[in-house]
Design goal:
about 300 residues; Arc Repressor Mutant, subunit A; D-Maltodextrin-Binding Protein, domain 2; 11 strands; flat; transcription regulation
């Protein structure tokens, strides 16, 4: 029995859907299914009842859920014992958060001159794994994660940026609404390459009772903003930090009229590891680096599990 198998089992057990569990673990559905099958063979019992419409835990599967959670929490606690000293901390994030991270680190070191804080660049899935393993103590992410082994502190909420070709019918007026945007195809990388943006847009459209249509998927070696020049009938959406560095020639940048395309920026820590003063102050300092046009959270220390 491998901890990886328990991790995948727990994801399926909580999602009750192999496809969503695969997205959550950032692996293919076939990889999830293979490891679950191996675990079931080792257990000698089926862990899930599967049909074309639903997935349910068996009696043995339901009993294994709490054991799997406990084993994964023990793994995190054991790794944390050897991965940091009291005054050392590693903050994981991507390059778009570099300015926020450095500003927060400077502020924390003014208060804690003994602190050693590293900012390490990692992709989203790597950040979460690093926090869970104890390699990093804080991850700065867009969006959120729902795992009992993690605490999520929402720092601020930012509007996503709607990008249109200058000749698009919605480019010349006020900020467009979701209802107006829904009349045109959306241009994005395929869902597996940009899960977060797809989820935000799909959720906003569904809540508003709107139907989303897509243009051709953006290739991995292309950018959505550049592809709009080839498909001016479409629209796209990017992070605010990406918009700042995107060439503006031939493009118009807007926000959704009713601010329904928003994304939280959050700090993630392991719930099983005691919080240090340095860690707490770093998260508060990160919250203070929110952009001027972002919606800051009044209680950055509050946590969402």
């Amino acid at each position: 029995m491998e901890l990886r198998q328990l991790k995948y089992f727990l994801a399926v057990g909580e999602e009750l859907n192999f496809s969503r569990a695969a997205e959550r673990c950032y692996v293919s559905q076939s990889a999830i299914s293979l490891q679950i099958a191996k675990l079931e063979r080792e257990m000698g019992e089926p862990l899930f009842e599967r049909s074309s419409r639903s997935v349910r835990l068996t009696v043995v599967g339901a009993q294994l859920v709490s054991i799997a959670r406990h084993m994964l929490e023990l793994e995190q606690a054991a790794l944390a014992l050897t991965t940091r000293k009291q005054n050392q901390l590693r903050l994981a994030g991507n390059m778009t958060f570099a300015a926020n991270a450095l500003a927060a680190i400077v502020r924390v070191r003014e208060r804690h001159p003994e602190a050693e804080i590293d900012f390490v660049l990692k992709r989203f899935a790597e950040q979460i794994d690093a926090v869970m393993s104890g390699d990093c103590q804080v991850a700065l992410i867009r969006g959120s994660v729902e795992r009992t082994s993690l605490h999520v502190t929402e720092l601020w909420t930012e509007d996503l940026v709607v990008v249109l070709a200058e000749g698009h019918p919605l480019a010349g007026g006020d900020n467009p609404s979701l209802e107006q945007l829904a009349a045109y195809p959306l241009l994005l990388p395929k869902r597996s390459d940009q899960i977060l943006l797809h989820r935000v847009i799909e959720g906003a459209m569904k809540r508003s009772g709107l139907r989303l249509t897509f243009g051709p998927p953006v290739a991995p070696d292309h950018t959505a903003s550049a592809e709009l020049l080839n498909h001016p009938e479409c629209w796209s959406i990017i992070y605010a930090s990406t918009a700042e560095s995107t060439p503006k020639t031939g493009l118009a940048f807007r926000t959704e009229a009713q601010h329904r395309l928003q994304l939280a920026v959050s700090a993630v820590v392991a719930s099983s590891v005691p919080e240090t003063d340095i860690q707490r102050d770093l998260i508060e300092a990160l919250a203070d680096t929110a952009p001027d046009d972002a919606t800051s959270q009044n209680t950055p220390a509050s946590r969402i599990r």
